[in-house]
Amino acid sequence: xxxxxxxxxxxxxxxxxxxxxxxxxxxxxxxxxxxxxxxxxxxxxxxxxxxxxxxxxxxxxxxxxxxxxxxxxxxxxxxxxxxxxxxxxxxxxxxxxxxxxxxxxxxxxxxxxxxxxxxxxxxxxxxxxxxxxxxxxxxxxxxxxxxxxxxxxxxxxxxxxxxxxxxxxxxxxxxxxxxxxxxxxxxxxxxxxxxxxxxxxxxxxxxxxxxxxxxxxxxxxxxxxxxxxxxxxxxxxxxxxxxxxxxxxxxxxxxxxxxxxxxxxxxxxxxxxxxxxxxxxxxxxxxxxxxxxxxx
Length: 296
Known about the structure:
By secondary structure, this protein is mainly α. It has one domain: MetI-like fold, CATH 1.10.3720. Helices cover 64% and strands 0% of the residues. The longest helix is centred in the middle third of the chain and has 36 residues, at 82-117. The chain starts with 20 loop residues before the first helix and ends in a 9-residue tail after the last helix. Mean pLDDT is 83; it is low at 4-11.
């Protein structure tokens, strides 16, 4: 005799936000931001290959010359081709922004998931640490630690920027985890004997993937602007390396007399930050619906 009612089954977790990605990718801001970012990335890595001049080559017949068929972005005071130098700086800023964003979001995901899942002492300790890190002036600390950046190069700069950029994202992940841990599929996993580590890795974080992916892109623009600001005041990327920040700092003194020294690197910075911001905000709108993302 067939059963009189529907069969019961264990509660299943909701579809992670990644299941909504194909539809979310049609968001206008995502399309514009991703297209512009791909174009800038290709330009940064492939553009120097098409230039007739190398990064260290000098044209001793052209000093501080405006853009021309020979030097597409003009030359600097030592005769170097600004087209190649600017694209190498764009590449370095992109690389720093991406690595800082990935490290920041990974650290924030770990801290936020632990504090959100475990009430009591772990939550209080890590929340206190997060609050402490938020009130410490990062520029002052970076100035004190500048000798480390000077010796360790831009890799040390990446680690320092990541160390001071994870707190806001950690609060967002904590708020989302505190909400998700009461769902039925989390209770069922605990009832079946799953360890807290397994629950966090296999159930909680996958359902926060949309939030984390969107936050990575937003953190890229924040990291690029932070690196630019630090390099502008001499606390970031150090010679002989170049970034958009160092190029802007060097070109500022020529902004009125030789505007190509300042204009191209500044324009690329504006385009880069705009592209990443559009992509990040579009992903956040498309992938974080229904996820609590309070920053307080």
